[in-house]
Amino acid sequence: MNKLFKVADQQMNHLLTASGKQLKRLFITISDKQGTPPGTMVYTGKQKAEPLRISVMDFDAATLAEQSDAATEACLALKDTATVSWINVTGLNDTEAVARIGKGFGIHPLVLEDILHTTQRPKLEDLGDYLFLVVRMLFVEPGAREIHSEQISFILTKHCLITFQERAGDVFDEIRDRLRQSHGRIRKMGPDYLLYALMDAIVDNYFVILEKTGEQIEGIEQALMENPNSLLLNELYAQKRELLYIRKAIWPLREAIGGLERGESNLLSAKISAYLRDLYDHTIQVIDTVETFRDMLSGVQDLYLSSMGHKTNQVMQVLTIIATIFIPLTFVAGIYGMNFEHMPELGWKYSYPVFWVVMVTLSLGMLYGFRRMKWF
Amino acid sequence: MNKLFKVADQQMNHLLTASGKQLKRLFITISDKQGTPPGTMVYTGKQKAEPLRISVMDFDAATLAEQSDAATEACLALKDTATVSWINVTGLNDTEAVARIGKGFGIHPLVLEDILHTTQRPKLEDLGDYLFLVVRMLFVEPGAREIHSEQISFILTKHCLITFQERAGDVFDEIRDRLRQSHGRIRKMGPDYLLYALMDAIVDNYFVILEKTGEQIEGIEQALMENPNSLLLNELYAQKRELLYIRKAIWPLREAIGGLERGESNLLSAKISAYLRDLYDHTIQVIDTVETFRDMLSGVQDLYLSSMGHKTNQVMQVLTIIATIFIPLTFVAGIYGMNFEHMPELGWKYSYPVFWVVMVTLSLGMLYGFRRMKWF
Amino acid sequence: MNKLFKVADQQMNHLLTASGKQLKRLFITISDKQGTPPGTMVYTGKQKAEPLRISVMDFDAATLAEQSDAATEACLALKDTATVSWINVTGLNDTEAVARIGKGFGIHPLVLEDILHTTQRPKLEDLGDYLFLVVRMLFVEPGAREIHSEQISFILTKHCLITFQERAGDVFDEIRDRLRQSHGRIRKMGPDYLLYALMDAIVDNYFVILEKTGEQIEGIEQALMENPNSLLLNELYAQKRELLYIRKAIWPLREAIGGLERGESNLLSAKISAYLRDLYDHTIQVIDTVETFRDMLSGVQDLYLSSMGHKTNQVMQVLTIIATIFIPLTFVAGIYGMNFEHMPELGWKYSYPVFWVVMVTLSLGMLYGFRRMKWF
Amino acid sequence: MNKLFKVADQQMNHLLTASGKQLKRLFITISDKQGTPPGTMVYTGKQKAEPLRISVMDFDAATLAEQSDAATEACLALKDTATVSWINVTGLNDTEAVARIGKGFGIHPLVLEDILHTTQRPKLEDLGDYLFLVVRMLFVEPGAREIHSEQISFILTKHCLITFQERAGDVFDEIRDRLRQSHGRIRKMGPDYLLYALMDAIVDNYFVILEKTGEQIEGIEQALMENPNSLLLNELYAQKRELLYIRKAIWPLREAIGGLERGESNLLSAKISAYLRDLYDHTIQVIDTVETFRDMLSGVQDLYLSSMGHKTNQVMQVLTIIATIFIPLTFVAGIYGMNFEHMPELGWKYSYPVFWVVMVTLSLGMLYGFRRMKWF
Amino acid sequence: MNKLFKVADQQMNHLLTASGKQLKRLFITISDKQGTPPGTMVYTGKQKAEPLRISVMDFDAATLAEQSDAATEACLALKDTATVSWINVTGLNDTEAVARIGKGFGIHPLVLEDILHTTQRPKLEDLGDYLFLVVRMLFVEPGAREIHSEQISFILTKHCLITFQERAGDVFDEIRDRLRQSHGRIRKMGPDYLLYALMDAIVDNYFVILEKTGEQIEGIEQALMENPNSLLLNELYAQKRELLYIRKAIWPLREAIGGLERGESNLLSAKISAYLRDLYDHTIQVIDTVETFRDMLSGVQDLYLSSMGHKTNQVMQVLTIIATIFIPLTFVAGIYGMNFEHMPELGWKYSYPVFWVVMVTLSLGMLYGFRRMKWF
């Protein structure tokens, strides 16, 4: 029993350490920059060693120019060209380079601070010349078990879309392939459609994460049916925490995408609004699913507690039946084990058989009583 | 006891597998198409083998033409005729045919995607030339035990109502009969009234489902009164999950029908608004009932837990009464079973009767004490 | 113990059957008419044998004409007379007669359907020429124990107030008496004031019901203080369910009366608004009281659970104290009951007194330890 | 143990009877007047024997005339004088006198009904010529332990403030003193400021009540730390109920004072609005504190339940350790107490010491096992 | 066991006394001034001995004049100078001096009362000529363990920012350093930016507090994994209470800063709005984090309760297994310890070995049964 308990502890520790680390990343890094003046650019993320790399895809319906490691200056040159430019910055450690890009595109210092300060709440800000959108990208890298969480910031200008990621590796490869194929809607439309396509990829990935979560919840459930134990309880708790985490990342997103959809900015073309409404619907669906999973988890927890209560009750009943039957019998046996000199029954001839008859009758009577009380 | 437990497990597994499958269908199919460009038409439902079939009812107050297996082109011909046309498409596996209908009626690709993507959240979209309404149809097929859940999409244009179902078999037979009878309001009014009539049939079926659920809850309750056991707990849990499921399907419907009722579209005639308000009232009533059932279920669960607690307490009391009375008596019997050479009581003449008197007195005293403490 | 349990079960069954019947009436009758076209007049209530009877009170400040069993045609004649007419229809089984009245007063088929369909959610509808108000009347008939619940529909036209009840017997006798006395405000004002007076009588009766409920909750509480048992738990549960039921009937009423008060209809005179605000205040107060009762009931339930937990704990402590003291003593007595040939203590002279001293010392030591742990 | 339980019961009964009486006064008196026409003046309070007394303070910045037992007619004479008149009516049993005052000041019959009907929900009504405000005054009389609760109604006209109390004794003595001193803001301003000052005194008294409640909660908490018992549980429950009661009195006040602050009535001067905002802030703070206390109480309850669970667990562990060690030992002792003729061990020379060694080893081994399982 | 419990009690008492004191300070000091006329200046805080001290920083982009102990008159002289003046008042015991400053700057008496009355709810008031903002500053002094809580009031006029603190020591040192360095945005902008900078420092400190809280919650969690005991339960409870406290301080802040951001006052320049939106975002993030921590704590509490339930169950199972196996065996041994003269088995030759074989078989059978019931 002890050994089992140990194993459960270790597994739980593992689970919680994993999700604990993520939570730490989400909650507690603002204080790193506490005490600096507002607008100071300090990178607060954990990918300190990631080098800054800029990849550029510059395209219109006819042409596509791709650069995998562009210089800052090359990016700035694309600012006012009629082609659509997607400037993807990975690695935010080099704050100087980020500042240079920011300055070149006329981005407000507070926005740059938010980009570097990678524990932002998802939000949308319309700053006139450009839109600023921060979201959280969640994905599971192929082969890995842990959810990777990362802040992505979007700057949408008239001709460009700039994205800032903490490190290389994202959910956009499929979009890149679509861009490389000359046909398709994405090449014919502006940077606003590109923004939508990238956001769509991120939201679609939430469904992948949730599908995984849903399967795990069902697994816990099934296992619980077969044998409720404390190991499952800990898994349950870890899932609960993970949902809390996902929820914190997704809830504010609704508001941000809702803001986009209402579409007052002239950076968003009229055609895009149907797509944004679709995106908004998906976000609502993600939130619905998260809430349903939370309800399911708390249902599973109730079931666990009730099952445990039922089991305790059963154990108690077994104990009580056994003890209640045998304790009086043992008492009677004890009586005739006494060494009093004057105990007439001891000498009677049929004492022993009578003793057995009484014992068996008593036991059966008690069993009958317990059955009437529906104890078994 | 063990056997009983086994049976409960099996039944529970059955219950949960059944509802588990449904939930799976509802939650986790979006990822099937994850990675495809927006507007790509991929059917995500489970009825992969269902052939596409189009049935048409074309009518005005005087005439009715019915086709049970129409060609796509025949449908498109009905687009602008003055008669009201109900085009019912079942089986969404043939995405090409759906696309052809969509193109013919000028439907936006994202709308077509939503039609095929059969885990949509109920919603209403006003796209100017046509209204798009998605709802979830729940019904129990005659003879079956399981709730069948299916997405139904409505496209309402000036002269036509197009409905898309995943498979044949629905709750509309009664409406078809009414159409076939030449008299009645339904033949005299436009496609908006037909939409209302179909929606009304769907919402009325929710009441049938809920009636069934209500009866099951009452059954659980009654059974719980007679003998609270873990089997009922699992039934309770399965009901809770089913309600969660129904709720997820119905909540957003309120908003959609509310949107219809507010009636800003010119596709909805003025006469229809009284009917839509009625429909809205019914939806609210469905939601009310679901919420009340949830409250009732959590009340039943509380009752179960309290009953279990009470039972455990009773079992404990029996154990304690028996143990507390006999353990001291057994001790005394044990004393006079000792083999010390110098135990004066052993030789006394009335030791044995005195022993019995003391034992009985002690027992009665304890019983009296327990009664005063209201233990029985 | 078993007997007590039986009694509790019976009482509980009684309680729940009673309230279960009511709930059935409220929730599950819509499906009776499922499958019929909208606007079809089917009476869904349970008073199938109640004959239709129309009583009329036609009055102005000076005169009062009363008919206890009027013909349909007589009612229609009152439609446009300057006197105020209160037409009270009891027994909705005769749908034809209801239809005739409806047609005569120009009432929409859907409204008539709602009148017959007696599980409506309370609501107000302004249909231009007339107001339609549905409420639920709750009352306890003198001598009866059960709450009687019935839908009452009001049709307010310029000169008439038509009320539809499922059966004879209501809370309006007091109003009738006031009408018969020639003095009083009620004779001088229009049908809108009459509507208010009737609604006021209904809402006042909610207070009577709630007063009864409040007394029962206090009774449960008091009984719980004296001896917490499972009987009370079931009473508690029955009360909870009854409140759920009352709440479902009253919550939507707030909205309906709020709509009346805002008073945009020209069927409501300016003078009436102060009275309607008063009525609205009363409704809010009813809702407040229901909510407070719910809070109180859940408080009582918490108290019950805590008391049970406390009692279990106490029982456990008694068991543990007794067992922990006597089990070691019994072991020692068992040792000296062994039949080893070589046990030096058995032959010693003072073994037996020493044995007693050791036993008593050990017991007292344990008791002292338990007291320090605050076990008693 | 039994005695302790008795005491707890008595104390609890006392506590609950006390608060039960209050609740009764609040909830269940409307039915006293059920069946009377609206606007009928029936006093529903409990102070039936309190004689009606009118005290008047008539003042401007320069003069102050005070009458401790004024006649009704004297009051009416003050209606239109330029001086500010505070007419305080205590004892509402004499409904005729109240009606005469009401008529003199032109007060609507429904308002007079609300004044006499002393279980009103706090509310504000603007009736054009006068404002009507109902609040609940809570205070602890010096030396008393119980909270006294009483409805106070305010009628604010252009030159007068009329207050209606159920009985003499209130929280306004301090205001009277301020009025008697010729200096101070209160003498220079109108009846609206006087209304504010009185309301401020009432709200300030809520803080006194809450301070007392807060101290009691802390007391329960501290006592719980030292020794969790069922007495505290009952205190906790009584506090919870008291808070429920205070909350019901205060919540609607927020709305009423908010209405005053928004200040659309021309009976409220522009200068007063800063004071009313201050009053509104205090009300919000009272509500905040009540909510925090509720959270604290439910926290204390959780702590109690967890402590009880912990204690039960500890008791169980002690029982299990003792029983698990001694039950097998007793079995072994029982074996060698058997009287079989052929038991070789009985005759061996070192059987007895070996028996002891085995017993001690077994016990120590079990203890070691329990420690490893962290049972103590 | 007892000793451990003692230690837990002491630690808990310590924890609760600490946080209890803070709560006392927050909740229960309004009654100190109960009974005084509105606008009376009474300092209700606890820092009665703190002397009043005024420090002034008067600056524009070019110059900075700093006074560490200025006279009241010197402050008033700065009122209308074009330079930005930050007048920081610490120690509110000297109400006369505060009144003099208030009068000099034309501050309303109710505002001054709120400044001295140091248990205000955070709020913003726009009084035309000046803005009044009250917030709660939370910080941990270097080396200390306890959270220090203090009300800070801001008065923003056209050229000055006046801050009132209860005692010296705050979170503004970093701002002072920035002011002293001639470069930086803070020197070039007006008092509105200074207000923002100070507020930003306060909100940033909330994150520091929350980071500490988060670490403690994780510590409790980790400890709980290793060994769930009642000590942790008390820590958990203390954390819950602390969060309740922080929440009460922060929730209203959102509204106040939201009011600032919407920026209708002309005391706030257009440039400042981006900064205020940033501040508002931070406040939302603080609230989000507090709510997430509350969810986490209640998750930890659930885990604790489930773990305890699991442990109790395990203990029960061990007890039941041991008791159920040995009680029947002991009964059998008791039988053959009886002294009946006629017990044939006693004389049989192989009775003793057969006895052992039966005992061992029985035990193994029971163990097998328990394993099948999954008891270990």
Automatic annotation (TrEMBL), chains A, B, C, D, E:
InterPro entries: CorA_cytoplasmic_dom, CorA_TM1_TM2, Mg/Co-transport_prot_CorA, MgTranspt_CorA/ZnTranspt_ZntB. This is Magnesium transport protein CorA. Keywords: Cell membrane, Ion transport, Magnesium, Membrane, Transmembrane, Transmembrane helix, Transport. It is a multi-pass membrane protein. It is found in: Cell membrane; Membrane. One of its GO terms (cellular component) is plasma membrane. Mediates influx of magnesium ions. The chain crosses the membrane at residues 318-338, 350-370. GO terms for molecular function: cobalt ion binding; cobalt ion transmembrane transporter activity; magnesium ion binding; magnesium ion transmembrane transporter activity. The keyword Cell membrane applies. CDD domains: TmCorA-like_1 (cd12828). SUPFAM superfamilies: CorA soluble domain-like, Magnesium transport protein CorA, transmembrane region. Belongs to the CorA metal ion transporter (MIT) (TC 1.A.35) family. The gene is corA_2.
